[in-house]
């Protein structure tokens, strides 16, 4: 199913439809402030396994991230965040960044890496943030890639739908996406480390 949602003023009916798909255990593809993302409810282990199958990766070795609505509920899934790190996150989010933090016991077991870390995303995109807000907890996120070329990100939601319509339950058309993924910022060591540059520089 392809569902068109206005990126600036998403209709509540459309948001509720996407949330219904997630609550039923479905997979959705959605716009972010970078590339289109593929995700499911973080507590849906079968959905996580389906995503891992689509991406051809082992779910226990995958580095999935969470999309959260804001910073208020991040502490539910992470260990205590250093004040310096929190200030940097507050300065840059919502925005095109993934922050790697130490996870806690609330993170579903299937998502825990051996390093016991989790990526946190709060995209500057009204559609996905409203979906997460209505759902009441984060969703899994991983980048959508063109199936015939693993290094190309697909930006056209109609083409994404053509490629993925038999693999996912809903594709949201929120306009053309970007083709540069989020920056990855590792905050688990003594120093903050930029693992991957993104479309915007990190504001320190």
Write the layout of secondary structure elements.
Layout: E1 2-4, H1 12-23, E2 28-30, E3 37-39, H2 45-55, E4 65-67, H3 83-92, E5 97-102, E6 117-121, H4 126-135, E7 139-143, H5 157-164, E8 170-173, E9 183-186, E10 193-196
Parallel strand pairs: 1-8, 2-8, 4-6, 5-9
Antiparallel strand pairs: 2-3, 3-7, 4-7, 5-6, 9-10
Description:
By secondary structure, the protein is an alpha/beta fold. The protein contains 5 helices and 10 strands; from the N terminus they run E-H-E-E-H-E-H-E-E-H-E-H-E-E-E. The chain has helices at residues 12-23, 45-55, 83-92, 126-135, 157-164, and strands at residues 2-4, 28-30, 37-39, 65-67, 97-102, 117-121, 139-143, 170-173, 183-186, 193-196. It has a 10-stranded mixed sheet with strand order 1-8-2-3-7-4-6-5-9-10, with helices on both faces. A hairpin with a 6-residue loop joins strand 9 and strand 10 (193-196). The chain is globular, with a radius of gyration of 16 Å. The mean pLDDT is 91.
Largest sheet: 10 strands, mixed
Calculate the mean pLDDT score and round it: 91
Which stretches are low in confidence, meaning pLDDT under 50 for 5 or more residues running?
none
Radius of gyration using CA atoms only: 16 Å
